[in-house]
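Q: Hi! First time doing this. I have a protein sequence and I read that you can turn it into a structure. Is that right? Here it is:
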Amino acid sequence: MAKTEVILTHNVIGLGGESDQVKVAAGYARNYLYPQGLAIPLTAANKRRLEALRQRRAEREAHEFNTMSELAKGITKLTCLVKMKSGDDGKLFGSVTSGTST
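A: Yes, that's right. Below is the predicted 3D structure, encoded as structure tokens:
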């Protein structure tokens, strides 16, 4: 089966991230990736666009990292209290064990 090299313009699950050069089946590129705008053919002109795509990916990943770091700081300050019924001796009912209640 013929393979062709493409430059991904968006993240494609199971294939690669934005600005990655990947080899895919020619039909997959022609029938799915190109029409959906997920990839561009690997040509000399498009290789020059590659740096702009890499820059855009780096900026997006930096922004996502900062957002997730802020979210992580907020989550670490939270406390979760779960109330459960227990027997007279303090043991939990049913399939809930003391190991799952901590």
